[in-house]
Design a protein that fits this description.
This protein is of the alpha/beta class. It is built from 49 helices and 37 strands. Helix 1 (16-27) packs across helix 2 (40-54), helix 31 (975-981) packs across helix 35 (1113-1143) and helix 39 crosses helix 44. The longest helix has 31 residues, at 1113-1143.
């Protein structure tokens, strides 16, 4: 029974004025103007509920300007409406820019959405939401923001007004949604009529307030009593004096901007740059600007600090200023410590310079004695405290709980004022004080004064919670509390600073909405602020009169001409993608371009942000070097042009986009250049149809069918239901009465005829299975196809009986005597009667005469058999108990009596089912049974199951080649290779696909990488990597496997000798399957794996039904990769390519030589265009180091170019070459390890060894050590006073040949090389002759990634330049030392297991918990290895940056390994390695 849906939560009783506003909103677009606390949100909730009933196919959207307000309003809506209410914002959905699936889920699963407007605007611009089709109602909270370029206004201007109006004549479902606005103050100030027209036209609405129920509104909205407090400003003649501020100011006056590290760095950069380049001009302008405005981090920060302290001194008094300077200075010194990361964006050089200045400032802690505080405070503080005490006394006289908010404009003043009130003798014991500064995360903003945020001890949420609960009764706040935060109504609101505008006036006053509340503004005696407030009061009266004027309703009509943007030149350009509706405008271009560059993978010390240059430049070139550069410049007022330069990591033909000098302001010029650049990116195919970076285009496999098939791709835990595997023994339906016939030869045995209904394959002695049995020489087999026979052939009937006989002896408990429907049949080629046929015939006659005495088929009691046939010695199998237990191999008859005691024991065991008997036993003939099989037939019964298993696998492989690969070159893969490729580890076979899968995975990634590099010449490395990852992902490979049906040929079932039985054409359902006895002759059948385990019983036969099995995504994908590996092994890259092409993977395919030609033709084209390009001198040196001369120098230039390089802009940086070089290196190393002689490495062992020679640490080491010696001479004076020429050879290192323009890269190079020189001998010895791979020593180099990137990019460049010659690349790797290292690791079985991995496996094996506790203190960093909460090892070293943590971790792991003696004799390292490989 389905119960009634639970009722919606009760909505509070609607007041008359709320119902009036609701009714108005149902008929037209309105903006409700009501004071804070009047219940505007409830009206919106009721309007939303009505919209859900009226428009069931669309959703409603509620906007709020801040995330905090969104969360608050979502909670209110959810509590009243029983529909799905969602929230999305940049805070809780950081991928909202690019996640199309997000918006699809939103529209499909929610009825109401709450979000910030920018999120919604982005979704509209990218075509994820259709405003007319998907949305029926827009609710704008704090609607007065809908002006200028606020997202509220952009939503309306760019999308709303382009839709047809909603009216009776419009039958289309794509119409403008209805609008509901909510505000407490519809204007910011100025002309009320004009302000109303602007906001009403922008939101296509009219501003309304209740008219019929005004008196009721007055009962619920309590306007506060307006008060003002006057105070006297400090007298100029007796101005305040702050000791700490004076000390700070004195030091600041001595500063010279030329000593600032940013100025020094900029001047240094200019000296290294080519004069006249774009980067030179950009740095030149930046240097002039920093000098003129003194806007460096340190100088600007100190001036801001001084200014804030001076303002505090003026407003609050010397004590507050002294406290502020003391506290900020104390905190800044702590942050400036180079070993401290309190402010992560502060650079080391800035910290050092700032610290040197701060150390000169002599400050004193403030005194907290009451007299000292009171004597050094301003009159404004006195007036405030008097007001607070008076307000509190009045509230308590009326038995009201006192609560107050003080609004302060500057956050610095908030901190100082709160500190004063917490310690002033008149307030410290009366008020419980909290502060609100906003929730902005300042840790990534580059400003010295952001340090003040760290002075706040409590979080905003805790402060608000304490205020609501009465734990705090006084909040000192910035404007953050004016709107957007749920704060209870206060009894008192005080404006320390007068409100800056009309909206701030109304918003802050709205917080004082208790009955008898007060709103106090503090005015300076003789100041003009009083007049401003008086003006706002007049404007507010005019505003109320205007929106209560009924004549406005009929006269108001939104005219398109009223919709005028602030800057018309920025609203006349847009580009719309027709397929999605995605929109590019001048207003969105800059943010779009910034986002595009932000998602480009970062290289070391590279800023990928787009660079904007204004035209004309702000300063004359070289202005910073003029003697009179401190004189003011003549201001330039336009027009302006702009140039935007995109990062060098983008391999675009043009990375600079320029617009002419025709725009009114700088912002407009930058918008136009960004628009031009972004449109160019779309035209180059670097954006998708939603005008976003092509993350969605590069994953086309993520379709609904794959989502249903897989639960989680990355965890490789998805499962897909697929049909059962093919049966190679299944009858050929096209030839129902035909049996295929072959001749089976087994060494040492008579040949057999093999009959089957399925197609046979011929196998010579080299292709047939080799059978191995203990103590017996290997047995060879072969099969020769003879032709076909009719089902009525007499041999078929004989073969059925013969097949039953040879299998019955060992498998009778799993067979039925009367079931002869075998899928394969055997019959001796020379089918003549033998002595054993006579014996079997005798048993048949005996059983016919006395059925009850001969119940066991093909078995007779041993005593009776011996008596009848003279105790022959050619017996084979004996059963200990007639019809029970496993057969034993017959040894002989014993005629001598046993000792009495032994005979008694034997007779006792003979009548009882004994436990496991000894290997050699005596049996009593009267209880034992003789199996009537000849010695040759017994051999058949042993060997045929293994032969059948081999045939099953070979026929499965043959079927795969014939049915799937028949018309493809991959059908050439030999059956032996392909069989291994489709054999899963779960089959238990000696050979399975795991090794081939490892090889195939590498081949796949290599070939796909080449395809993508050639197909997408404009894609940066991030796109290429993402596309490759998706193309070769398990989900993609599994999908291709299933779509082609490859899974049907995967060999997964296990053959268990103990449970083997012959296969039948029919199977029977098991009702009560008999217990399977242990059938284990003295000599086992071959331990291959059975075709299928089938239980039989006496129920009627029925057709085999199709059923489903579960295959893991990994198995499906692994088989595809292993087939690729088999193709590569047989036909190298050509056949590997054909195999990968067969599986498609959603890519465009061309043969590898064609792709390499395409890459080379592009290089040749660029070379022709760059005839004037001067090749760097270090190219020849690099070629000497490599032992390879490039035919196309541009490839080497690209391989050596760091993204920071600021010279010729035509050369791309090395990331694309690194992308290719990584896969080339993997290919060469994996190929070597796969074929390592005598090793036959498992995938885990291949991975361990490959990781040792391709990891970033070892490649960086190779980059650091690769060098040449250049002969040179230098004249020197000799002892005789003459001049002689001496040798002055120079060493040139590979790392020095990197083309870059980054001071940080240079610093990292020099520091890393210093560490290299200290450790190179130790590392070299360990690498080339040591038994243990030096992981920890390599880590101590702390080499940045660009060292290893350089090696990989050079490898990629050589591969292309050599027309894809793997042998040539390998020869370069020989010269660089990669191959000799790999050969040493393999030849000498070097221990390559990582110390952290070794320790983790050791702990897991012993069920211990292990932790690495890293601690940093000052200039030291330490790591402790903690095992089961006990510290076992601790290593301490110098802190040299973040990599030091990894260094001490590895060193600690090594120490622990030594302590626990994990490398000593007795520790099963091989087991550890095996477990590591499996892990």
């Amino acid at each position: 029974m389905v119960g009634d849906p639970s009722p919606e939560p009760p909505v509070p009783i609607t007041r008359g004025y709320q119902q009036e506003m609701l009714d108005e909103s149902l008929h037209k677009n309105i903006i409700i103007a009501l004071d804070t606390g009047s219940g505007k949100t409830l009206i919106a909730v009721l309007r939303l509920r009505h919209e859900m009933e009226r428009e069931p196919t669309k959703i409603a959207w509620f906007f709020a300007p801040t995330v905090a307000l969104c969360e608050q309003q979502k909670g209110v809506i959810s509590s009243y409406l029983q529909v799905s209410v969602g929230i999305v914002s940049g805070a809780n959905e950081p991928d909202q820019w690019k996640n199309a699936a997000l918006w699809e889920r939103v529209l499909r699963t929610h009825r109401i959405m709450v979000s910030t407007p920018q999120v919604f605007l982005d979704a509209l611009r990218h075509g994820y939401i259709s405003l007319g089709k998907d949305i029926s109602l827009l609710v704008f909270d704090e609607a007065h923001h809908a002006v200028d370029n606020h997202p509220y206004n952009r939503i309306m201007m760019e999308f709303y007004f382009n839709l047809p109006p909603r009216n009776e004549n419009n039958v289309s479902n794509i119409v403008r949604p209805m609008i509901l606005g909510l505000t407490a103050s519809p204007i910011y100030g100025g002309n009320v009529v004009k302000a109303f027209q602007t906001i009403e036209s922008n939101l296509d609405s009219t501003i309304h307030a209740p008219r019929r129920h005004r008196s009721e509104l007055a009962q619920y909205v309590h306007r506060p009593i307006f008060k003002h407090v006057m105070y006297y400003p400090p007298d100029d003649s007796t101005s305040f004096f702050s000791t700490n501020l004076t000390s700070l100011s004195a030091i600041i006056k001595t500063l010279d901007i030329e000593n600032d590290p940013s100025v020094i760095s900029l001047r240094s950069q200019l000296q290294r740059m080519g004069h006249g380049s774009s980067d030179y001009k950009r740095v030149d302008q930046k240097l002039s600007k920093v000098i003129q405005k003194e806007s460096s981090f340190t100088h600007k920060g100190l001036r801001d600090f001084e200014r804030a302290a001076m303002d505090i001194c003026h407003d609050l008094g010397p004590w507050a200023a002294d406290w502020f300077v003391w506290k900020v200075l104390e905190r800044a010194k702590e942050a400036a410590n180079p070993y401290n990361n309190i402010m992560v964006t502060w650079k080391s050089s800035e910290k050092v310079y700032l610290s040197s200045i701060l150390d000169q400032v002599v400050v004193s802690p403030v005194s907290y004695y009451a007299d000292d505080i009171q004597d050094d405070l301003s009159d404004k503080i006195r007036a405030l405290i008097e007001c607070l005490l008076l307000e509190k006394a009045e509230a308590e006289s009326l038995n009201d709980t006192y609560s107050c908010i003080i609004f302060v404009q500057r956050r610095d003043a908030v901190l100082a004022l709160a500190e004063v009130l917490k310690h002033h003798p008149l307030t410290k014991d009366i008020f419980r004080i909290g502060t609100l500064l906003g929730t902005s995360d300042s840790s990534h903003r580059h400003s010295m004064m952001d340090i003040t945020r760290s002075l706040v001890r409590e979080s905003q949420d805790d402060t608000l919670s304490d205020f609501k609960e009465g734990e705090k009764n006084l909040i000192v706040s910035t404007a953050v509390a004016e709107e957007g935060i749920d704060i209870q109504a206060c009894g008192s609101v005080i404006r320390w600073d007068p409100p800056p505008n009309m909206a701030s006036w109304a918003q802050s006053r709205g917080r004082a909405r208790k009955r008898r509340s007060t709103f106090t503004v503090m005015f300076e005696e003789g100041g003009k602020q009083h007049a401003d407030v008086a003006k706002w009061e007049i404007l507010e009266r005019q505003m109320v009169e205007l929106y209560n004027d009924p004549s406005r309703d009929a006269s108001f009509v939104v005219d398109d001409e009223m919709i005028v943007a602030e800057d018309e030149e920025d609203d006349d350009m847009e580009f719309r993608v027709e397929s999605t509706g995605a929109l590019l405008t001048l207003h969105s271009a800059v943010s779009h371009l910034t986002h595009f560059c932000a998602v480009i993978p970062n290289s070391s010390h590279v800023d990928n942000r787009p660079l904007y240059d204004i035209d004309p430049p702000e300063f004359p070139e070289g202005w910073h070097a003029f003697d009179a550069h401190y004189k003011p410049l003549t201001p330039y007022t336009g027009p302006y042009g702009s140039k935007v330069t995109l990062p060098r990591t983008l391999p675009l033909p043009e990375r600079q986009f320029t617009v002419d000098r025709i725009y009114k302001n700088v912002i407009s010029a930058h918008r136009h250049s960004a628009y031009k650049a972004y449109l160019s990116l779309y035209e180059a195919g670097l954006l998708n149809e939603s005008l976003l970076p092509i993350t969605s285009v590069v994953e086309p496999e993520l379709e609904e069918e794959v989502k249903a098939m897989l639960a989680d791709v990355e965890k490789r835990a998805g499962f897909a239901k697929v049909s059962i595997s093919i049966d190679p023994w299944a009858a050929d339906d096209t030839a129902a009465d035909i049996w295929q016939c072959s001749e089976l030869h087994i060494d040492g045995l008579s040949p057999l005829l093999l009959f089957a209904r399925s197609e046979h394959i011929a196998l010579d002695t080299n292709e047939g299975p080799m059978l191995y049995r203990p103590g017996v020489r290997p047995v060879k087999t072969s099969i020769r196809h003879l032709g076909t026979v009719n089902a009525n052939d007499k041999n078929i009937a004989k073969a059925r009986e013969y097949t039953r006989s040879i299998f019955w002896g060992l498998n009778n408990t799993r067979m039925e005597w009367d079931d002869l429907d075998f899928v394969y049949l055997f019959l001796p080629v020379n089918n003549v009667d033998t002595e054993w046929d006579v014996r079997r015939s005798w048993l048949v006659n005996q059983a016919a005469a006395a059925p009850s005495s001969y119940q066991h088929r093909l078995m007779v009691r041993a005593d009776e058999f011996g008596h009848r046939f003279g105790y022959p010695a050619d017996l084979t199998f004996i059963q200990r108990h007639m019809g029970f237990g496993r057969p034993f191999k017959f040894i002989g008859w014993r005629y001598e009596p046993l000792p009495a005691e032994e005979e008694d024991e034997l007779r006792e065991c003979a009548t009882v089912m004994a436990k496991e008997p000894p290997p050699l036993i005596h049996l009593i003939p009267q209880y034992s049974g003789v199996v009537l099989l000849s010695p040759e037939e017994a051999e058949y019964s042993f060997l045929l199951p293994s032969i059948l298993r081999y045939l099953f696998m070979a026929m499965t492989t043959h079927s795969l080649r014939k049915n799937l690969f028949d018309s493809n070159p991959i059908s050439e893969i030999p059956i032996s290779l392909l069989t291994v490729a489709i054999t899963a580890p779960s089959s238990g076979e000696r050979l399975n696909y795991q090794r081939m899968e490892t090889l195939g995975d590498t081949v796949l990634k290599f070939i796909v990488g080449v395809q993508l590099l050639a197909e997408y010449p404009l894609w940066h490395e991030g796109y290429l990597t993402r596309r490759k990852d998706h193309a070769v992902s398990n989900v993609r490979l599994a999908k291709e496997d299933i779509s082609r049906g490859v899974y049907r040929w995967i060999i997964r079932d296990v053959m268990l000798g103990k449970k083997w039985k012959p296969r039948y054409f029919t199977i029977k359902e098991a009702a009560n399957p008999p217990l399977s006895p242990v059938v284990q002759p003295t000599d086992q059948p071959m331990q291959q794996h059975e075709d299928k385990v089938e239980d039989t019983n006496t129920t009627p036969k029925k057709k085999k039904s199709k059923k489903s099995q579960q295959l893991s995504t990994k198995v499906l994908a692994d088989v595809v990769e292993s087939i690729i590996g088999a193709a590569y092994l047989h036909g190298s890259f050509d056949l590997g390519y054909e195999c990968i092409k067969f599986f498609d993977l959603g890519l465009k395919w061309e043969p590898l030589p064609t792709r390499i030609s395409q890459l080379l033709s592009r290089v040749d084209s660029l070379t022709a265009q760059a005839e004037d390009l001067n090749f760097p001198a270090q190219l020849a040196d690099v070629e000497r180091m490599l032992g390879y001369t490039f035919q196309r120098k541009l490839l080497l230039i690209e391989a050596l170019t760091h993204a920071s390089y600021q010279q010729d802009s035509r050369a791309s940086s090395y990331e694309r070459m690194e992308f290719l070089g990584d896969s080339v290196l993997d290919m060469i190393v994996t190929h070597y390890l796969y074929h390592a002689p005598g090793k036959n490495y498992s995938p885990g062992h291949m991975h361990l060894r490959k990781s040792a020679v391709v990891n970033a640490h070892i490649l960086a080491y190779i980059c650091l050590k690769t060098r040449i010696t250049v002969d040179a001479v230098m004249p020197h004076p000799n002892a005789d006073g003459g001049i002689e020429v001496t040798n002055d050879a120079q060493e040139i290192y590979l790392w020095k040949c990197l083309l870059h323009s980054s001071p940080k890269v240079l610093e990292d190079q020099l520091n890393t090389f210093t560490r290299f020189r200290k450790r190179k001998d130790e590392i070299e010895e360990s690498l080339m002759s040591g038994p243990i791979f030096p992981w920890a020593a390599l880590t101590r180099l702390q080499a940045p990634k660009f060292f290893s990137d350089m090696v990989e990019s050079i490898i990629g460049a050589i591969f292309i330049d050599s027309n894809g010659s793997i042998p040539l690349v390998r020869s370069v790797l020989e010269r660089l030392g990669v191959m000799p290292l790999l050969e040493h690791i393999v030849r000498d079985d070097v221990d390559v297991l990582h110390p952290v991995s070794r320790l983790s496996m050791w702990a897991a094996k012993r069920d211990k918990t292990i932790q690495y506790v890293i601690d940093r203190s000052g200039s030291k960093v330490s790591c402790a290895v903690v095992v089961d909460d006990k510290e076992e090892v601790k290593v301490t070293d110098e802190w040299r940056g973040k990599p030091s943590e990894e260094e001490v971790k590895y060193a600690a792991a090594e120490q622990a390994i030594k302590m626990f003696k994990l490398r000593d004799v007795g520790v099963n390292y091989e087991l550890l390695k095996k477990e590591g490989a499996e892990t």
